[in-house]
Fold this protein.
Amino acid sequence: MNLTAIFIVAIIVGGITSIISTLSNKKNKETNKFSKQERDDIQMQIQQMSARIETLERIVTDEKYSLNQQFADLK
């Protein structure tokens, strides 16, 4: 292999490495959109909403609620 071919291959490999590195960094930035504090806040909100949903499910499936709803429908 002559020196020119080695030089051309080195440039091509360097360019490909640079492109892969840039794409990898871009992907890492997208995955870390939220800070730890923001992720914790979102997780807390999800837990609070889950608790509220459980309460609403309990109310709606309660026999008294169903009976009151039937009375309201009769009026």
Summary: The chain has three helices and no strands. Helices lie at 3-31, 36-61, 63-74.
